[in-house]
Amino acid sequence: MDRRIIGGKGRGVARRVPPLAPAAAPAGAASPAAPRAQRLQVDESSAGQRLDNFLLRCLKGVPKTHVYRVIRSGEVRVNKGRAAADTRVQAGDEVRVPPLRLPERPAASVPPREFEVLYEDDWLLAIDKPAGVAVHGGSGVSFGVVEQLRRARPQAKFLELVHRLDKETSGVLLLAKKRSALTALQDQFRARDTAKTYAALVRGEWPEPLKLIDVPLHKYLKPDGERRVRAAAAEDPQAKRSITLVRVARRFAGFGLLDVSIRTGRTHQIRVHLAHAGHAIVGDDKYGDFEFNKALARGEAVPGQRFAGMFLHAQRLAVQHPASGEPLTFEAPLPAACAALLRALPPLR
To answer: Coil, strand, or helix at residue 271?
Structure first.
């Protein structure tokens, strides 16, 4: 029996030998002692985690780019052997990390925050993530949902993201409260045994026959390091096949509300596929109509209604419970701003 949950009202820690912080300088020394290599031992609760995620959790304050640099250079060793970022560490493994200097400025404090809970038990937590909040820190963001939840729940022994949503995307976000739950749920995502449905408002009249978009996507970095994605030709060796399914939920004059599901989980997949089809998501600041978005934020595009942000909402997620196998469906209602915009749109005549 499928349980449908509709929106309403610790972690594993590695032992550090020696400590992460550089050794204190002797009295009268002109400068602090140089940072030293560290040896981290993987405990049971961290078993099965990717090496990069393990290090990012342990090396608080070290920039993400530095962590990936030392992994790529081969300076990080697992049981004295070289390891890649996607290596799965196991309980009892010894991870050697080369000397890393912490930033001189203190790290930004993480304010504790709870989010609207859609479902929670001893294994997992489903929340309704607001738009504009990153799911985790990194890439210029000091903290995100998972860090704030950990601060708000100091008694939690384990709390990890099962999947991710773009910062600008709102809706259902799933977190695991046990290592076994995390691996079981992530296996479901990798095997495409989950069902995710998004609500997206696009400009223009979406063509009824266009129900499947099968266009490869190529991820790249801009000169400033910002991550972007573009539609690519099938023969592009760096592109990955990407499949998006689209159904028109409602039509308005000049707009369409779509139900979108994805067969592949590529970065920015829905945003790029819909823009490539000629119907960018309303408010998309990376792939959308920038001038229209500005007019919409000023209240000029839709009379009497201002809307700032992106209209992409993860409205439904179906999984199997990691312990019982019971089907679960989580649903998050549209944010108030999105619902208000729909009410203000002119009807289709």
So the answer is: helix
Considering the domain boundaries, does residue 120 fall inside one? Answer: yes
Instruction: Give the global pTM.
Output: 0.74
Same domain, residue pair 124 and 240: no
- The rounded distance, in Å, linking the Cα atoms of 303 and 343 is 12
In a shared domain, residues 328 and 303: yes
Domain containing residue 138: 3-10+107-190
Asked if residue 20 belongs to a domain, the reply is no
Same domain, 178 and 212: no
**Helix, strand, coil abundance in the chain, percent, nearest 5:** 20, 30, 50
Positive or negative, the Cα torsion across 215, 218, 223, 224? Answer: positive
The per-residue pLDDT string of the chain (349 residues; one tens digit each, 9 = 90 and over) reads 666 666 654 334 344 444 444 444 444 444 455 568 889 988 877 788 899 888 888 887 787 888 888 999 999 999 999 999 899 999 889 999 998 766 554 445 889 999 999 999 999 999 999 999 999 886 667 789 999 999 999 999 899 999 999 999 999 999 999 999 999 999 999 888 999 999 999 999 999 999 999 999 999 888 877 889 999 998 899 899 999 999 999 999 999 999 999 999 899 999 999 999 999 999 999 999 999 999 999 999 998 899 999 999 999 999 999 999 999 999 999 999 999 999 999 988 7
Whether 24 and 32 have beta carbons less than 8 Å apart is answered as yes
Of 323, 317, 320, 330, whose CA–CA distance to 1 is shortest? 320
Residue 275 contacts residue 287 (beta carbons within 8 Å)? yes
Q: Are 172 and 118 in contact (CB under 8 A)?
A: yes
φ, ψ for residue 330, nearest 5 deg = -105, 135
Q: For residue 284, what is the domain's CATH number?
A: 3.30.2350.10
Residues annotated catalytic, as ranges: 166
